[in-house]
Amino acid sequence: MFSLDQLRGFVAVAEELHFGRAAERLLMTQPPLSRQIQKLERSVGVRLLDRDNRKVALTPAGAAFLSEARRLLTLADVAPDRARRIAAGSAGTVRIGFTAASTYGTLTRVLNAAADAAPDIDLDLYEMVTAEQIAGLQSGELDLGLARPPFDTEQFASRLLHTEDMVLAVPDGHWMTALDRDVTADDLVQEPLIMHSPTKARYFYNLVVRIVPVGQQNVVHTVSQILTMTWLVAGHRGVAFVPESAQGLHIEGVTYLSLRGVTDQQAELHLLWPRDSDNPALQTVLDALEN
Question: Where is the HTH lysR-type domain (predicted)?
Fold first, then answer.
């Protein structure tokens, strides 16, 4: 295996095309430099330089090896600094899970704040429902989640990120759009309902059933994504309870109506991370989001 000193010697000779000038540049004498090149060529298994008493030239293999040698030396130079920055939390990677509904404004605010405070930290994104995020945080596949409650507060630390009201999405021209008041539970008795999945969207399912009694005879579709629900509403398949931020989707054919008496049933979105995380970059991102 070749050494970094051998690579530096080869690069110097390749750039100077003269052993004497290369040795002078490296603050060494010519004989040990020549031995370094010979050892390098034996390690690589090909001749890298053509030399005689009058000139030095790169072989085709040497020309190809030169670019790789420069790359390896650059990596060797920057690796210690990068390791120090990763240990300090100013570089590295934070893997973020997020629910689809959190992309309606909240996710970009989180990413922008983190990127402004720590531009050398890579932010990898994974779209997951809350249950999948919790599994990812437990297994170490994720560092941070944008998730809905409930979660194990002994295992996870959390920070409330955003709250919003639930609204009723109805097709444009629906009879409830003509009401001169907020929608009540009585208005929904005969309405076909597009409902959240009780397994894949359990948080929103539980939130909705606290808002209004849901008769299974009224449920025409059960889905897990807010975007899908809203498109189904636009297609006159029924009405749906969605977080207020869904209005940011700007899907044509949908009107959003306020609900009476549900101010205590707001949807919550939390930052969620393992209490025992050993990723220094995570703390840097959390500090950025607190400011």
Answer: 2-59
